[in-house]
Design goal:
alpha/beta; 5-stranded parallel sheet; two-stranded antiparallel ribbon
Length: 187
C-alpha cells in the first residue's frame, strides 16, 4: 500500500466519515467529511463553494437518508433553488418532502455596527428548530462572512466561530460552513 493510501486509510479508520456522494471527493477525503463535525470550505467568490454545499446536502438526503438544513445569509431560497435547478436538483420537492429545510437569514450589518453587540444565540435557536423539525443530520451555513458582517473585533469573531463550531459538534451535525479566503478576512 502506498504512503498516501496508508495515510488515508489510517485517518478513515480513526475518524468516522459521512459520504458526500460527490464523485471523486469521497475518494480524495478517504470516505467523505468527518461525521458529526463542521468542515470549513474556503475559496474565492464564484469557485463553487455553495454548489458543493448544496450537492452535499441533496445527496445526503436522497442517497443516504440524512435530511439537512441549508441556512443562507446572502441569497434567498428562491434564488438558490433557481441556481441549482440546472444541476438537476429540485430543492422545492425536497423541501416539500421534508428532506431539506431552506432558511434565509437576513443580517442587518448597520444594526451590528451601531450597537456593537453580537452573539449567535438567536441563530442557535433558529437552527436548532430547523434541525429538530426534520431530524436533520447535515447542515450548511453559507457564508460565514455574511454572518459576521460588520463585526470589526476579530477576537469576538473568532470566539463566536469557535462557539458555532462547538454547538454544531455537540449536536452531532455533519456540517459545511462556507467562507471566502483572502486578504483582510478573519478566517
Amino acid at each position: 500500500m502506498g504512503t498516501k493510501k496508508r495515510r488515508a486509510h489510517a485517518v478513515s479508520a480513526t475518524l468516522p466519515k459521512s459520504p458526500t456522494g460527490i464523485t471523486g471527493l469521497d475518494e480524495l477525503t478517504g470516505g467523505g467529511l468527518p461525521t458529526g463535525r463542521p468542515t470549513l470550505v474556503c475559496g474565492s467568490a464564484g469557485c463553487g463553494k455553495t454548489m458543493l454545499a448544496v450537492e452535499f446536502l441533496v445527496r445526503g438526503a436522497v442517497e443516504y437518508g440524512e435530511p439537512g438544513v441549508f441556512m443562507m445569509f446572502e441569497e434567498n431560497a428562491a434564488e438558490l433553488t433557481a441556481n441549482v435547478r440546472s444541476l438537476g436538483f429540485d430543492l422545492d420537492q425536497l423541501v416539500q418532502e421534508r428532506q431539506i429545510v431552506l432558511d434565509y437569514v437576513h443580517i442587518e450589518r448597520s444594526e451590528i455596527e451601531e450597537t456593537g453587540e453580537y452573539d449567535l444565540e438567536g441563530l442557535f435557536i433558529r437552527l436548532g428548530h430547523a434541525i429538530d423539525a426534520i431530524g436533520a443530520k447535515r447542515v450548511v451555513l453559507d457564508t460565514v462572512e455574511a454572518l459576521f458582517a460588520g463585526l470589526p473585533n476579530h477576537a469576538i469573531l473568532r470566539a463566536e466561530l469557535r462557539r458555532l463550531f462547538r454547538w454544531l459538534k455537540d449536536r452531532g451535525m455533519t456540517a459545511i460552513i462556507t467562507g471566502e479566503k483572502g486578504e483582510g478576512n478573519a478566517i
